[in-house]
Amino acid sequence: YVLQIRQQPVRCKAAGTSERALADRKTVDPPPIIQLTVSDGDPHRGWLQSPFFFMCANLYDPVVDTPIARPPSETLAGTLVSSLHRVRDSNDREGGYFVFGDLSIKLEGRFRLQFNLFEMLESVPYVYIGAQVEFITSTISDVFTVYSSRQFPGVLESTSLSRQFSDQGVRLRLRKE
Q: Looking at the record's lineage, which domain of life comes first (predicted)?
């Protein structure tokens, strides 16, 4: 299993913790996109259709390889988990991608994101209550900045990769300016 971050986070506006602040939150910009490659010798690449792969995001220290010492509910907002999307990239190659288009951060500062890949084990078909989950691998993003409301320089224009994935049905907020 190989993970490659195809779209690194650059900046974000701190989401805050009040209900009003969370309602007006900005997501990590651009949205992190991680590509999964499985070299299992399957010429049909059946893993691309697997509903059992998922990825979770954690907030990480910008220097030391440790998570921020606070629970995710105090540091992150939005959708912290992504399922596998089967889409074509800008080179028209089909692949498996995890997209974090609704992820926000509640703290100001410099951080990295850790993305952990898991697989649900198929013990009993279509029964997920109490399902066993296996950790597979992880990857860590580059350092990015989370700004206060006053210092936030604004959102970036949507990337071509974000636009391409959105055109194929992946839910992403697109910006034109």
A: Eukaryota
